[in-house]
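The data are quoted verbatim here:
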Amino acid sequence: MKRWITLLAALVIAAPLHAAPDTPPAAEAPATSEGVVRKIDAANGKITLKHGPLANLDMPPMTMVFRVSPALLGALKVGDMVRFRAERIDGAYVVTAIEPLR
């Protein structure tokens, strides 16, 4: 029995050593994406963006609505090209940083 416990402990310790090195953790995925502002709803804290891939969320390009703090909207307007970061927070997609590309 003691041999089995020792063997299992060795396997548990060695398992991470065999992880695929080509698969970066989500934290290492690019944090920002670029997109175009399609709609701004500051009163409800929402912005619609047509965006490129969101690597940190493993999401393909699409147009979607994000939650956003009205304070981040600043002087953004419909049609602006932007660089932004989105995260999934409490089940919702939230823009946590955004800046116009000029």
